[in-house]
Amino acid sequence: MILQNRGVVRAALPLLLVMFCAGGAIPATAEHHEYTAEFTGGGELIRPAGWREWVFVGSPLTPNSLNGGAAPFPEFHTVYIDPQSWAHYKDTGEFREGTMFAKELGLVGETAASSGVGFFNGKMQGFEIAHKDSSRYPEESGGWAYYTFGHHDEPYADSVAAMPNAACASCHTASAAEDMVFTQYYPILRAAKNAGEAGAGLGGNP
Question: Does the pLDDT value for residue 159 go beyond 90?
Answer without folding.
Answer: yes
